[in-house]
Amino acid sequence: MLGHFVTNTLVVIVVLGIMIFIHELGHFMAAKSFGVRVLVFSLGFGKTLLHIKRGETDYRISALPFGGFVKMAGDDPSEVREGVKGEFLSQPRWKRFVIVVMGPAMNVLLAVVLLTGLYRFHNQRPAYLEKAARVGDVEDGSAAAQAKIQPGDLILRFGDQEFPKWEDIDIKTMISANETIPLEVERAGKVVKTSITPIAKGSDHMGYAGWDPTAPGILDDVEPGLPASKAGLQPGDEIVGINGHKVYSFPTVANTIQAGNGKPVVLDFIRAGKESQVTVQPIFGEIMGEKRWRLGFTFHVETVVGQLPWGEALTNSLHDNVRNCRVLLDIVGKILTRRMSPRQLSGPIGIAEASGTAYRQGWPDLIYLVAFISLQLGILNLLPIPVLDGGVIFLLLVEGLIRRDLSLAVKERFVQVGIVFLLLLAAFVMYNDLVKTLRPY
Question: Which residues span the domain enclosing 187?
Answer without folding.
Answer: 129-212
